[in-house]
Design goal:
With 263 residues, the protein is an all-alpha fold. It is 68% helix and 0% strand. It has helices at residues 10-30, 40-48, 50-60, 72-79, 87-112, 123-148, 154-168, 179-183, 188-210, 216-229, 237-254, 256-259.
Length: 263
């Protein structure tokens, strides 16, 4: 029997997601195995799906607004419904991906004169980045952003989610073979990775709200952005942070009248 409040529970979601993921990814890290070996792969998958699993558990338990979705299944169907976005928004999302993925590479390409513009990453990274990256948004923005921005301004909600989102990745740095493990704990790339997540999180919140509180918008942006990132060379930490922060600043200023409000 459901005992929820009938209202979203943002803090229960954020801390619950962190706990869920850290438990399973923590177990995966202490196996000492490569991330694609069993049982590390299974533990990593369960942990990686934490943002969406916890969201669905809370919705099923009654911690959600029934005027949005009457059930967890209806919530999922809404998240993946292509009709929730207009063609114009599909084009805008593609444009944002081009800026985030290709502009930093073009900028550094001009500076260092590197001729290898394309540098395709491992297929496993491409698939995980595309699928898990997209599914994360069902939780982070679909549940977390929607829930938190009912208590705090949109831009502040985005930053808070960014803190949890960055911390959520930490165990991956201890699992051999993951993208994060390759960056190295405490390296410049480590800090760039987390700062970029933090400063870009309000951008995802903007995208969710500007599209009409449509989960599919950040879902596509995250998944396809990860895919694009695996097709080009890595850029310097400073360039990555600057592009993410600059784009977030632009959309925040342009939409400041509602980004500063509680929705």
């Amino acid at each position: 029997m459901r005992s929820g409040t009938g209202k979203p529970a943002p803090w229960l979601y954020l801390f619950g997601t962190l706990l869920w993921t850290w438990i399973f990814l923590g177990l995966a890290s202490i196996t000492g195995q490569f991330w694609l070996e069993f049982p590390t792969a299974l533990l990593s998958l369960i942990g990686g799906l934490g943002p969406v699993i916890v969201a669905l558990i809370l919705i099923y338990g009654g911690y959600w607004d029934k005027s949005l979705d009457s059930s967890a299944i209806q919530y999922l169907l809404r998240c993946f419904n292509p009709k929730t976005l207009s063609w114009g928004w599909y084009l805008k999302i593609l444009g944002l991906i081009v800026i985030i993925v290709f502009f930093p590479v073009i900028w550094e390409f001009r500076i260092i004169g590197d001729n290898s513009f394309w540098e395709i990453g491992p297929l496993s990274f491409i698939l995980v980045g595309l699928v898990i990256g997209a599914l994360e948004e069902i939780g982070w923005r679909g549940y977390g952003q929607e829930a938190l921005q009912r208590q705090l301004p949109v831009v502040i909600s985005g930053l808070i989610i960014g803190i949890f989102w960055a911390a959520w990745h930490l165990p991956l740095f201890f699992i051999e073979g993951t993208y994060q493990h390759g960056l190295g704990w405490g390296s410049p790339e480590f800090w760039s990775f987390h700062i970029s997540i933090l400063v870009s999180s309000p951008l995802y919140g903007w995208l969710y709200n500007a599209a009409g509180r449509v989960v599919l918008a950040p879902l596509l942006f995250h998944g396809l952005g990860n895919l694009g990132g695996e097709l080009v060379p890595s850029v310097s930490p400073g360039t990555s942070i600057a592009v993410h922060a600059g784009l977030t600043l632009i959309v925040t200023v342009v939409s400041w009248q509602w980004m500063k409000r509680i929705q």
